[in-house]
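Sequence in, structure out. Go.
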Amino acid sequence: MADSRTLPQPPTRRTPAVLVIGGGASGNAVTVLLRRAGIAVDLIEARPDWNATTGSGITLQGNALRVLRELGVWEQVEASGYAFGSLGVTAPDGTVLFVAEDIQTGGKDLPATLGMQRPRLQQILIDAVRASGAGVRLGTTAETLDQDADGVSVRFSDGTTGRYDLVIAADGLNSATRAAIGITDKPEPTGMAIWRIAAPRPASVTRTDLTYGGPAYIAGYCPTSETTIYAYVVEACRDRASIDPAGHADEMRRLARGYGGVWPEITEHITDPKQVNYTWFDRLLVEGSWHRGRVVLIGDAAHCCPPTMAQGAAMSLEDALVLAELLGGGRDWDDDLLQAYYDRRVPRVRTVVEASMQIGRWQLDGVRDADMAGLVGSTMNLLKELP
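Output:
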């Protein structure tokens, strides 16, 4: 019998390498999932602080929580946030008009909705990325992407270079990568803007309540922990250059004073302009495909919509789940696989974008008899299905 040491050995298969550009929800999530599949990942983030202190609050519905559970962070999210299962609609004076049970889009074993402080969610995802063993470089951008048939050569802002089998662009709404690979779609303003602030939670606030009408189109709040909420007021967008940042608290307080119920208690805490965020609503849906060669878009780089259905983060997290599943499934990383990612995601994302836009248009046009409940219900029932 021949010595087994003399037998020819099969070639060692090289571990594929991925660069993730952007450390927001989708970039962090896809990094963790790819590392779990044994894929080497480097993540770069332009901001040195990794966005760990930015934002007031976030509403996560069941289909977003389902992905967070898959990431292995559900227990931390549950402990940090505030779960609830209903939505209230009130008159501008605070009178409750009706309360509807939320649809559990993540299944019966997850809450319908959970609110939490956005920086806390980001920190949980950061910790998961660190624990995954991914390479992380902060304060770093990709300056050039040179593609060939086998991969992408990247030159970074610090002068270093790297070679990758795939680049995932998770660099947000104004993605520089999207433009760099020749996708010309850009976000478009919808005509609405939102004022947001974090505040202490009034004891009576145990769910999201929304008011349509009054001084603004929409006023609402969401509990984000046992002690905090984030509150928001939606109005027609104005020229941002005409709004002095030093007056942000005054502007939001002026609008909020037109609402009753718990709003007077919330308004007392709208005092620091640095804590008030003013943002326009935008709409984006890249059509045809979300990739060019070996560079693929994910999350807000590929799509965004007004938060009228609170599904922005959920759609981004689902992108990460689906793309990671395809990349880890043993198929060739080719054009067909990346097109399959787009084909699987775009019908679901389009439904959410169009429904979110429709709700905004009804508000802008002053439509009072719109079937908002029917639209939300049909969309949420669709989202109960796995992505």
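Check: The chain is about 30% helix and 30% strand. The first helix runs from residue 25 to 36.
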